[in-house]
Every structure is written in C-alpha cells, then in structure tokens.
Write a structure and sequence with these properties.
Helix content is about 20%, strand content about 15%. It has about 250 residues and is α+β, with helices and mostly antiparallel strands.
C-alpha cells in the first residue's frame, strides 16, 4: 500500500473494574467501594487490520500499540499526557512498519489530555503586566495577519527580552501597535462576558496566535508527517474504538 492511501487510526482509553461475578437473571452486580483493582486500556484500531499491531508469518503478534496499566494505590501511575505521547510514538512506528509509504489519520475524542498544550504555550492570563518576575517563559510567535496595525502583520515576535526574561502584557501588546494606556492588566475575579478589551490579558488572548494553538498531541503526530483530527464534543459514539471497548467490557462482566 503506497501513495496517498490514508487509514484512519482511532484512539481511546477506558477504565474498568477487574472483579468478575456470575449473575442470575434480573440480578444486578453491586460493587463494594475500594475492592478490586482498576485496569486502564489505551488502544488504537484501524480500518485495514483491526487493532494496530504487527504480526509475523504465523499470525503471532510481535508488536502492539495497546498499553495496559493498573492505576491506583500500590499500582501504576494514573494515565496522563506524558504516557499518551510515549504511546503515540510507538503507534506511529508500528503504523509506518505495517503501511510503508502511507500517511495515517489519527482520530481522537475531545478530552483535556488530548487538548493539552506544551509547557511553553502562549497564555495571556499567565503573563504579568510588566516584564520579568515569576511569570513563565512562553514560545516565540508571529503577529497574525488579522492584527489591526498593518505594519506589524506577519512579523516575528519574541516573547523574551535580550536578557532572557519573559515579556509582560504591556510590552507584548505595544509591539503589536495596541494603545493600552490606562488599561488594567487583568479583570478581577473574571472578565465580563463577550468583552474583548476589558483588560490587557483579555485583549491579547483574543489574538489569533493565542487562540489558535496546536495541542501537543497533534503537534507530535504532524511532526512525524501524519494527520490528526478530533471528533465533536459529547459525541463519543462517533469513535469506532468506543464500540470495541464497550463490547470487551460487556464480555468481561458477563
């Protein structure tokens, strides 16, 4: 399979209780709190071969993208973004071996882990009014084409000073041509609804480069030459792997 053939790789994860019990008709299993262990399964399925695996000539699985952990007290760590990114690297390597010359389309549902940005992501509300201080360093950016001042559009903007200190809100906005004289740095406790110029942080957060950032998960996938998309919120039924997980869960309980 070569060329522009693009298999869809659907990824998801779920937790379930390992405890099993036989039930009679009309009986319901009542689990005791704190008993048993939790199993967490994170896996990928694809339209060509089912699960994302590599098999030898005898049909034995020699490489598998599935990751199984047992989180909880005295168990494995709870599933997080770092473990997911490590699994993604393995999954991409398996896909490239199984489908040389092809690009994969990875499909995920909406979750906070999938949407997580990198540690250097742009966030106006993490910035101080002035330069320096305890605010974290953020990545350099490019002033968007939608910037009100034409002369600044498309110009690169460093988010640190020459001495390495992070820039503040006022300096960042003034470099884009905004007049922020007399404007407060941040609203307290929160910004008014549907207001874009109530404070410096809100004004900067509405700029395209701050609003349209790529998640760390998507960046990891696209950096290796593959595609990534996310399903609409609250529609997990669109993800085929959810059906697989439900099938396996039902057969493990009954």
């Amino acid at each position: 399979m070569f060329g522009w053939f693009t298999p869809c790789i659907c990824g998801s994860s779920s937790c379930s209780d390992i405890v099993r019990k036989r039930l009679c008709i009309d009986e319901q299993k009542l689990m005791k709190k704190g008993r048993g262990r939790i199993i967490h399964v994170s896996d990928f399925v694809e339209e060509e071969n089912g699960c994302l695996v590599i098999k030898d000539q005898d049909g034995t699985i020699i490489k598998d993208a599935r990751c199984i952990t047992y989180p909880g007290a005295n168990g494995d760590a709870w599933w997080d973004l770092a473990q997911l990114l490590k699994q993604i690297d393995i999954a991409i390597s398996i896909f490239e071996e199984a489908h040389p010359g092809c690009r994969a389309l990875f499909i995920f549902d909406q979750s906070s882990a999938h949407a997580s940005l990198g540690p250097d992501a742009l966030c106006a509300f993490d910035m101080n009014r002035s330069n320096g201080g305890k605010q974290r360093k953020q990545k350099d950016t490019t002033i968007p084409i939608s910037n009100p001042e034409l002369r600044y559009r498309g110009l690169p903007q460093k988010m640190t000073l020459e001495n390495g200190e992070p820039k503040g809100l006022q300096r960042t906005l003034e470099e884009r041509g905004f007049n922020v004289a007399g404007m407060r740095a941040k609203c307290s406790p929160v910004c008014p609804i549907e207001n874009e110029r109530c404070c410096m942080a809100r004004l900067l957060s509405k700029q395209e480069d701050f609003r349209n950032q790529t998640s760390l998960l998507e960046r990891t996938i696209t950096t290796r030459g593959h595609l990534c998309t996310f399903l609409p919120k609250f529609h997990c039924e669109l993800n085929p792997i959810e059906m697989v997980g439900f099938f396996l869960l039902m057969h493990s309980l009954f």
